[in-house]
Amino acid sequence: MGAALMETSAAARAVFEKADEILGVPLSRVCFEGPEEELNDTYNTQPALFVTSIAVLEAMREAGYQNEPKYVAGHSLGEYSAYVAAGVLGFEDGLRLVRERGRLMKQAGELNPGSMAAILKLDDDKVAEICQEVTSEGYGTLQVANYNSSGQIVISGDDKAVDKGVELALAAKARRAVKLPVSIAAHSELMRVVADSFREAIDQAPLNLPEMPIIANITAQPLESLEAIREEMEGQLTSSVRWSESVQWMIDHGVDTFLEIGSKDVLKGLIRRIDKSVKTVTVGSPDEIKVLV
Questions:
Q1: Protein fold of 3-109+190-247
Q2: Most buried of 160, 205, 278, 284, CB within 10 angstroms?
Q3: Which of 28, 53, 187, 246 is catalytic?
């Protein structure tokens, strides 16, 4: 992840080297070489994804890309890359905050073990109804974690609750309902146990007003104050990511082209499902940057 950028872009290389210096560990080695088990530990996954996306952004700027976006947004952790792109956070402060987010979410997963599952081709309201039913029947916490696109929802909560949710979704004629290979119940109440600790880290981080609107995961509306940003950062741990609504809001406000910056093209597929009429360009490799510029 990011190895080709490291080799071809001095700006990207500087980002990875700075990250290693800030964290005091060779995060770049984990990004480039793994092992996969180490990279998939959310304590490492979160800073790795964040650093790679900022490395791509800096490589784009180095190559001469100067267009300023009308809006920025990020899916879950990706929102922190959006904060840096919009000038809310500096890279160093953003990385420290992301590292702490990963540490605390891992801790929450150890204190409150849970899981997540993807539900395909079932009405949003029906999935939410299933979550309420499972929770009320005493299986444990279950809620919608991600509204990714029409027909693609992720649920999150206690293991037994997720298993029951999968069972009920299939009974309700979902095309597919499958547990995800994760060890934490992100965007669920099981993360509440670390919310106060993360808020302390948020309050210590220096923030600036955004240079361009950031569309929030929780409300699918622009974040317009520093307090709203802090509330978003904290609340995102336990709240649903309303990605589909966020993308639709931007489309409704004139966006017809999206740039997905990072190591993969997951959001490109989601945006295509939300509205096939808009264009999405994935930017994560040296060749993709050349085409863009």
A1: Malonyl-Coenzyme A Acyl Carrier Protein; domain 2 (3.40.366)
A2: 284
A3: 187
